[in-house]
Design goal:
Blueprint: H1 2-20, E1 25-31, E2 37-41, E3 46-52, H2 53-58, H3 62-65, H4 69-76, H5 86-105, H6 117-128, H7 131-145, H8 160-164, E4 172-175, E5 182-189, E6 193-198, E7 206-210, E8 214-216
Parallel strand pairs: 1-3
Antiparallel strand pairs: 2-3, 4-5, 4-8, 5-6, 6-7
Helix pairs in contact: 1-5, 1-7, 5-6, 5-7
This protein binds zinc ion.
Protein name: SprT-like domain-containing protein
Length: about 220
């Protein structure tokens, strides 16, 4: 994904970025956890995009792909014809992070407003131009060379509304994974998440939990 971002997305944009911000470079790296993000260091003028290994693993499973913003973006904005597959999710993630880089360079990354209209204008553009499709083709080609199967089949995603219907205010739920598993009681049911008031060890804390990460505790 790093190589795809550097070759396919950064390659053609580099000159434009450097005209605005001389000497800036991009380095992509793999992180160990789920965290996937773009960062810019104004001193070294280095953009860094980190792709979390666990984020990649999660996108190989239908259930674990559910909660991600990239899944909602592909479906909601009709990227790759709205088809959610591992291959499309990973290609889209490259575009999403790179859109943050372009957003940052164009001065549209505002505090407290990260996924704003300017961001989606850039992301739409990456999908409408050949960029996103080229990233997808690159990922398929490279994984084939390395003997990794990158699934292109459409994932059977459970409708979020069906999932939400299983939860109600007052339910006791668990969320997160050991050793960070937490417990609480639902105090509000939102559109895709529940607001959970921590109980026991987590009393006093409040969480907004995606429905896919939540289960009833017994
Ligand atoms: Zn983002």
């Amino acid at each position: 994904m790093g190589a795809a971002t550097e070759a396919i997305l950064w390659g053609p944009a580099r000159e434009w970025v450097q005209n605005r911000n001389p000497g800036s470079e991009l380095k992509c790296r793999a992180g160990s956890g789920q965290a996937t993000y773009h960062k810019f260091d104004p001193h070294s003028r280095r953009h860094t995009i980190t792709y979390g290994r666990q984020m990649v693993m999660a996108k190989f499973g239908g259930a674990s792909s559910q909660g991600w913003l990239s899944t909602r973006e592909i479906q909601g904005r009709d990227y790759f014809d709205g088809e959610v597959s591992t291959c499309n999710l990973l290609a889209h993630t490259c575009c999403h992070e790179f859109a943050h880089l372009l957003q940052n360079v164009s001065g549209e990354r505002l505090h407290g407003s990260v996924h704003n209209a300017a961001f989606y204008r850039i992301l739409d553009e990456l999908h409408a131009s050949a960029g996103a499709a080229a990233v997808r083709a690159f990922l398929l080609e490279k994984s084939r060379q390395q003997g990794i199967e990158l699934p292109q089949s459409i994932m059977a995603l459970v409708d979020v509304r069906d999932q939400m219907a299983r939860f109600a205010v007052g339910d006791t739920v668990q969320f997160g994974h050991a050793p960070r598993q937490r417990e609480g009681r639902i105090i509000r049911v939102n559109r895709r998440t529940c607001t959970v008031q921590g109980t026991g060890r987590w009393r006093g804390a409040r969480y907004r939990v995606p429905v896919s990460m939540m289960r009833h505790s017994r």
